[in-house]
Amino acid sequence: MKKWMNWLALAALGLLLSGCGYNEFQGKDETTKAAWSEVVNQYQRRADLVPNLVNTVKGYASHERETLEAVTRARASATSMQVTPEVLNDPAAFQRFQQAQGQLTQALSRLMVVSENYPQLKADASFRDLQSQLEGTENRITVARQRYIASVRDYNVLARSFPTNLTAMAFGYQVKPNFTVENEKAISNAPTVNFGK
Predict the structure, then answer these.
(1) Which residues contact 155 (CB under 8 A, 6 or more apart)?
(2) How far apart are CA 74 and CA 84, in angstroms?
(3) What confidence score (pLDDT) does residue 62 get?
(4) Do 4 and 153 contact (CB within 8 A), yes or no?
(5) Residue 32, in any domain of the structure
(6) Would you give per-residue pLDDT tens digits along the chain (197 residues)?
(7) Taking a C-beta distance cutoff of 8 angstroms, is the pair 110, 54 a contact?
(8) Cβ atoms of 98 and 180 closer than 8 Å
């Protein structure tokens, strides 16, 4: 009878440990880190394209100095940040990273608008190639961010759900920050359309 009780106690302990979610936290944390690495990889790919793009535009539109300098500064800011997986657990650092990348996106958008004013630049084969690579990279960034957002959602659900939230509290697993839209308030308002009378 005592042997039967020991087996029963071991089985109950095994069930209790399997339901605590510790191993699931490890798996989801690694998935989140891998997804983050891909986001950083794609942002780096974009940053690597910027110098060639700026130099190509400079050859045709050198008097657009302010725009070119803005792109260069934004790239320097975006690439100067230390983007380790620990950033995932620091909402303030994550926000700074997101802001720096947003500034680079805006500066590149302005550069593309400026390029519309230069037909010879738009006809340049290397510019078209760089523009195509940049567009492809922006799409890759979007996909990588979507995967990261999904992995963070899964991790955060685990960290906030019962009974795994008890494991999260016991081992200090915090909810991870996620990407947000910079001007969330502004985009929640419908645009005003006035067709005149």
Answers:
(1) 25, 28, 29, 31, 32, 176
(2) 20
(3) 76
(4) no
(5) no
(6) 677 777 766 666 555 555 678 889 999 999 999 999 999 999 999 999 999 999 888 888 877 888 889 999 999 999 988 777 777 888 888 888 899 999 999 999 999 888 888 888 888 888 889 999 999 999 999 999 999 999 999 999 999 999 899 989 999 999 998 887 665 444 444 444 343 44
(7) no
(8) yes
Residue 182 belongs to some domain of the structure: no
Domain containing 106 equals: 38-144
Q: Are 60 and 121 in contact (CB under 8 A)?
A: yes
Whether the Cβ atoms of residue 114 and residue 64 lie closer than 8 Å to each other: yes
- In this structure, how many other beta carbons lie within 10 angstroms of the beta carbon of residue 53? 23
How far apart CA 165 and CA 159 sit, in angstroms, is 5
Q: Is residue 176 one of the residues assigned to a domain?
A: no
Q: For residue 107, which amino acid is it?
A: A
Rounded distance between C-alpha atoms, residue 113 and residue 66, angstroms? 13
Query: What CATH number does residue 86 fall under?
Result: 1.20.1440.20
Count of the separate structural domains present in the chain: 1
134 located within any domain: yes
Number of H helices, E strands in the chain: 8, 0
